[in-house]
Structure formats: structure tokens, C-alpha cells
Amino acid sequence: MRLITGTTEFETTEATAISLGKFEGLHMGHQLLVNRILKKKEEGLKALIFTFDFGERSTLLLPEERRNLLEKWGVDYLIECPFVESIAHMEAEDFVREILVKRLHVKYLAVGTDFHFGHNRKGSYRLLEDMQKECGFQVEVVEKACYDGREISSTRIRKELEQGHMELVNQLLGYAYSVTGEVLYGHQIGRTLGLPTINQQPGLSKLLPPNGVYATKTRIASEIFEGITNIGYKPTIGGETRKGVETFLFDLDRNLYGETLTVSFYGFERPERKFDSLEALKERIEKDVAWGRKYFGEREN
Ligand SMILES: Cc1cc2nc3c(=O)[nH]c(=O)nc-3n(C[C@H](O)[C@H](O)[C@H](O)COP(=O)(O)O)c2cc1C
Ligand SMILES: Nc1ncnc2c1ncn2[C@@H]1O[C@H](COP(=O)(O)OP(=O)(O)OP(=O)(O)O)[C@@H](O)[C@H]1O
Questions:
Q1: Which domains are present in the chain?
Q2: pLDDT means over runs of 10, the chain (301 residues)
Q3: Relative to the CA of 10, which of 62, 148, 194, 240 has its CA 20 to 30 Å away?
Q4: Mind giving me the DSSP string for 23-71?
């Protein structure tokens, strides 16, 4: 995949199939659009995702994660267009003519019914439909994908994530919500509790579910290991200043320091608490482990 980022001077040489938007979560609705443009590769078009870069903000997918997913799915070009004045103030028609047609050679566009663009968000799928003949591209308008009778959106997913509803979050996303990070050194107390753990700190703008204990799966190279993960500040051992993600793998005890691992979240068990003693914490974690094993044991994997 070719990544064009940090510049408004983008251009393709080939004809393209494009979808535009924020694509914050790359959820099931977004995937409908991505699949439409990927299908057009069969007709010789390059699949291009055009997103705006609003700078650092808390988000479901970090830029790196979004790039990796789109690359894995087979997208040819990802443009992360800086949301600067010259772009934000462009009239919708000019954006289509100057950018989509002249610079990106668009032949096909897939957009959702609520997609808006250009100065004052005046551009909509209707404008694109009106311009398609004259500009030589075809527009496909995709109905909003729903789950449980309600539209899927990044906003809805954020709200569910804030409440720790991971099963629903994963259904809406179409993949399991994950965090990736290097394995860091903790206080080395875990080991003395008979509980070697993986400590990670995801990027600061990555949205995390509420502090507490979750059933998780961790990918190490090509293998997947089940475990439980605590998100939080470890108040019992004096607390951390930065929120961490700490995972105990049920069936693996290997030195993983320095490796970069991805932990995917499934079910929520309980909130993080301050215990009166390390012994009380240890007892609780033993129950957490039993809960986690049962969680996965009861489900088809
Ligand atoms: C499954 C799990 C649940 C945890 N729950 C809590 C908790 O509720 N409260 C707390 O203070 N720390 C909790 N911890 C963090 C422990 O305090 C921490 O694992 C232990 O002290 C070792 O930390 P270290 O890796 O920095 O040595 C939890 C850790 C795990 C793996
Ligand atoms: N549920 C959906 N089904 C189909 N297309 C969708 C869906 N949600 C968004 N889209 C389309 O995907 C493109 C990018 O959408 P965008 O990321 O801006 O919206 P969103 O996920 O609804 O986010 P937010 O909740 O932040 O508005 C747009 O063309 C939009 O219409």
C-alpha cells in the first residue's frame, strides 16, 4: 500500500476507485465501502481511501493500526490529508474537480448516505451523482449498515467502549478491539505472586475501555494465547502515573520483554480495585484466572 501523509500535494498516475471519510474505527459499515472499492480492482482501478488527518486526538484506531488494517485488506493507496484551511475551505465542486478528478483520476466512488464534504459540508452524495456524468466517474451510494436495528457508527462504538461492552464493540467493528505495545518492565512484583505478566502502554491517544479485568487473546508471532488483562493504575501496589495494560497468559511463561504484542479484548469481568494487601489481590486474581478460563471455555473459538 502507498501511504501519502503530511502533504496536500498528492497525485496518482493510475485511475482509481475511491472512498472518503474519517474511517475512525474501520467498522462493519466502513468495511462495506472498502469492499466496494476493492472489488473495482478487478476492473483495473486502484483502491484508494481518502481520509482527513485532524491531528492527535483520542481515537479507536491509531494511525499506524488503521494503516496496517487497510494494507492487510488490499487497499492500494491511503491518503491522510492534513485538514488545513486550503482544503477545509474548498467548495465541494472544486474538491471533486481539482482533487478527485484531476489529481486522483477517480472513476468510481463509494460513499454512505450521510457523507458530507467541502466548505460548510455542502457536498453530499447528491452532488456527486449530479457531477458523475460530466466528470466521468460512477458513484455508488451505500445504505448505512445496522446492528440490532441501529446504524453502526464510530460514535456508537466509542460509547459502547466507554462502558466496557466489548462483545458488542467487537460485533460492530467486525474484528476484536486491540491494543498494541512493546512489553515493558513492571515492578517485578507479579513474579513473586506467581503471576508473571506482560506490561504494555498503548499510544496516549488510543481509547481504552474502563479500568478493570478483561478476557483477552494475545498474538505472539503466529500463535494466539488466551489470558486476562487488567487495565489501570495498580492502586494496590502504590499506583502508576500512566494507565497501563497488564496481561497474564494462562499457558505461557516466556521472556517477552522488548517484543511488540497485540492484545485483543473480549469480555469484561470487574472494575480495578485497591486491595488491603497483596495477599488479597493475589486471591482475587486467582478467581479472575478461573473466570477467564471459563469465559473462553464456554465459547467456540
Ligand atoms: C488480572 C489482573 C488483575 C489485576 N487487578 C488489580 C486490581 O484490581 N487492583 C490493583 O491494584 N492491581 C491489580 N492488578 C495489578 C497488580 O497489582 C500487578 O499485577 C502486580 O502488582 C504486579 O505488578 P508488576 O508487573 O508491576 O510487578 C491486576 C493484575 C492482573 C494481571
Ligand atoms: N454504518 C455505515 N454503513 C455504511 N456506510 C457508512 C456507515 N457509517 C459510515 N459510513 C460511511 O463511511 C464513510 C466514512 O464515514 P465516517 O467515518 O465519516 O462516519 P461514521 O463512522 O458514521 O463516524 P462518526 O460516528 O464519527 O460520524 C462515509 O461515506 C459514511 O457515509
A1: 2-150 (3.40.50.620), 176-297 (2.40.30.30)
A2: 95 97 96 98 98 88 96 98 91 96 98 93 95 97 97 97 98 98 84 85 95 97 95 90 94 90 97 96 96 93 56
A3: 62
A4: -SS--HHHHHHHHHHHHGGGGTPEEEEEEEE--S--BSS-HHHHHHHHH
